[in-house]
Amino acid sequence: MNITLTAMQLDAAQAFRKEKNLVLLSPTGTGKTLAYMLPLVEDLKKRTEEQALVVVPSRELALQTVGVSKETGSGVRCMALYGGRPAMEEHRRMREMKPQLVVGTPGRLLDHLHQGNIEGSRIHTIIIDEFDKCLEMGFRREMSELFFLLPDVERRMLLSATDKEEMTQFMPEYHLMNYLTTDEPEERLAEFYVTSPTKDKLETLGQLLRQLGQQSSIVFVGYRESVERVSKYLKEQGFCLSMLHGGMEQRDRERQLFRFMSGSTNILVSTDLASRGLDIDHLDNVIHYHLPQTDDIRTHRNGRTARWDKEGRVIYIVGPEEHIEAVTSLSSNSSPCTTFTPPHEGDAEAILPRWQTLYIGKGRKDKLSRGDIMGFLCKQGGLSREDVGRIDVMDHQSYAAISRERVRETLLRLRGQKIKGLRTIFEVIRD
Hints:
Helix 12 links the parallel strand 10 (about 240-245) and strand 11 (about 265-270). The relative contact order is 0.11. The chain has helices spanning about 5-20, 30-45, 60-70, 85-95, 105-115, 130-135, 140-150, 165-170, 185, 200-210, 225-235, 250-260, 295-300, 325-330, 370-380, 405-415, and strands at about 20-25, 50-55, 80, 100-105, 125-130, 155-160, 175-180, 190-195, 215-220, 240-245, 265-270, 285-290, 310-320, 335-340, 355-360, 390-395, 400-405, 420, 420-425, 425-430. The strands form 4 sheets. Strands 3-4-2-5-6-1-7 form a 7-stranded parallel β-sheet, sandwiched between helices. A 7-stranded parallel β-sheet has the order 10-11-9-12-13-8-14. The chain has 16 helices and 20 strands. Helices cover about 35% and strands about 20% of the residues. The chain folds into 3 domains: about 5-180, Rossmann fold, CATH 3.40.50.300; about 185-340, 3-Layer(aba) Sandwich (Rossmann fold); about 355-430, Alpha-Beta Plaits (2-Layer Sandwich).
């Protein structure tokens, strides 16, 4: 995987092998997923039919966690379970795959346990990732029931970016690994603010994003309606962006996230849905359009940047009736917050990103791989490897980032073509 494990991850791997009940507290962005995933897949490779459950608060994190499992190259059979699609379809897939590792949202995991689709007697490990977020989203009852239904597992593990008293209700006794005292992420996080002359901050946001140019930014707002309103304004101003909130259909959320994570858009406007579970290779800026109301919200929004050993920038947009002091007082670890000065002269017009996203109507279940797509785009599409960016293969569809300048000719070349002998749809997801 071309990474060097941190002391926290190495310590967690050792504790995972020894302890029955384990709690890992570590700041967001420090690699907690790998901290449990690597020793877990090591354990699973020694077994045959037994299963492990990983509980996560959202479908996005479920899919991302499955992706991390596959990146290890362990060969462990892993599957994501979440709402928004028929449970019967998931059951059929489970019968075919016989997954060793199941990653899912609490309610959907309970559904499959109650239906007997997951055999509780075969579960040897249960892990709750983003425990604090699961509580925040109201999954306390579901998590308690999961623990009740699986009393004889060999190992239980909770992971969280904040300390919660409720942990003792799930595991009265546990081995604690607390890395929350470290201030390393804060040292790599520069915090600034800009002042909006009006309560409506749209014009200030537009000016700020022009100054930031092609840097990647997440703009956090407080409400679904605000996502729609801010996105509409920015599109009218010529920006290329993605948007995300809990009211969107799963298919649309998937498309919007791929466009941002592949670089087809450099701006993501989102509710706090994007504050957890998104591991973006490098995010330059976190912008608080609506100021965070609690320390937890602030912590998890800011945790999208300055991940691992990278640096990041946080910018608060402060209206005439708001005070930056209220935000910085949320955390005693907050770095000094100063007025934002653009790193370079901004562009008068919004700049379009290098990539655009190509939708391909076939996926993993059609025996399609990333290598298949890369070869197809280069041979039939006439692209060079430099013209193709990130490729994601889902169950029933795939996405590929291709050079914006080559989109038109590529679509003409692909018209009527088959990929691995299959006729399908090739279309660009429009900005």
